[in-house]
Amino acid sequence: MLGLDALELARIQFAFTVSFHIIFPAITIGLASYLAVLEGMWLKTRNEAYRDLYHFWSKIFAVNFGMGVVSGLVMAYQFGTNWSFFSEFAGSITGPLLTYEVLTAFFLEAGFLG
Q1: Structural domain of residue 94, as residue ranges?
Q2: What percent of the chain is predicted at pLDDT more than 70?
Q3: pTM above 0.85, yes or no
């Protein structure tokens, strides 16, 4: 065995979760910009190819948004399960920061859905 204790395993688990999660917000924000350009080009030129591309990528955007929400919930849950003593000690500082991050990220990405 590698001789890893519980703290090291928790860190590895959280590193994997964060690495997996960050893919989805990055793609969501990039796709939102691309979708805005596609819709603008369709409104300007009335070329149906832009509209078709927009509809194709908007489905991928919606799935990606859902995956980001789910992986973000898992990440927040790990704070409480893996580092409950740290959360109890530093909760008055990390709690508002996590709340702000969740609200801004969720509403920003949900705004891109509309």
Answers
A1: 24-113
A2: 97
A3: no
